[in-house]
Amino acid sequence: MIVDRDGPGGRPLTLSQSTAILMYCAEKSGKFIPADPAARAAMLEALMVASTDVTPIFGAYFGIARSKEPHAPSMQLFKERLRALFEVWDAKLARHRYAAGDEVTIADFSLYAGYARIKGVAADLLEGLPHLRAGLGRWPRGRGSRRRPAADARCRRRAASPSCCSRWRCCSGPATG
Q1: Integer distance in angstroms from the first to the last C-alpha of the chain?
Q2: What is the pLDDT of residue 114?
Q3: Domain map (residue ranges) of the chain
Q4: What are phi and psi of 135, to 5 degrees?
Q5: Does position 82 have pLDDT exceeding 70, yes or no?
Q6: CA angle (116 as vertex; 137, 99 as ends), nearest 5
Q7: Is the dihedral of CA 3, 167, 31, 85 positive or negative?
Q8: What span, in angstroms and rounded, lies between the C-alpha atoms of 17 and 170?
Q9: How many angstroms separate the CA atoms of 171 and 29, rounded?
């Protein structure tokens, strides 16, 4: 959840859905969202795959896996669906540096979240997907995700009522200079 105290028209805006937060912050900051219509469409496609396909399927898989009596056929079905989605992204990342082309976008942030969760719970799903591992696997160490200690401290002080876009710039934006 974010609260932007300097939202549209100078009024506070509260958002709680992760994809809406990503879109809002990208549009407000002018970062991580392509201006080119074709690149923007590719970014939206990748973002929707993460939001409407990867995340819900992972949620179902994880819920079944953690139940008292996991239903093996259901777990296998969801693993196969996740694997198929990740195979598509492996092929796309074989042709492009990032999910939506040659620039990092919020789609990469969203797809990385799904990748990281799967890697932690069902790493076998990622075996044999070299481009996915190389592309999304570099994110924690990549230039665009490096944290800066002074900025992080500033965000922790604002934890009670963070402004998304100031938090976005200091914690998640690319390191500059």
Answers
A1: 30
A2: 87
A3: 2-31+160-172, 37-141
A4: -75, -65
A5: yes
A6: 55
A7: negative
A8: 21
A9: 13
**pLDDT(176) > 80:** no
Report whether 59 contacts 50 (CB < 8 A).
no
Q: From the CB of residue 55, how many other CB atoms can be counted at a distance below 10 Å?
A: 18
Q: Which residue has the tokens 């492009």?
A: 96
CATH pick for 37-141 out of 1.20.1290.10, 3.30.428.10, 1.10.10.10, 1.20.1050.10: 1.20.1050.10
Residues whose CB falls within 8 Å of the CB of residue 21, separated by 6 or more in sequence, listed in order: 2, 15, 164
Tokens representing 130 are 């070299």
DSSP assignment of 83-116 equals HHHHHHHHHHHHH-SBTTBSS--HHHHHHHHHHH
The tokens describing 84, both together, are: 């198929």
Does the predicted model carry a pTM greater than 0.70? yes
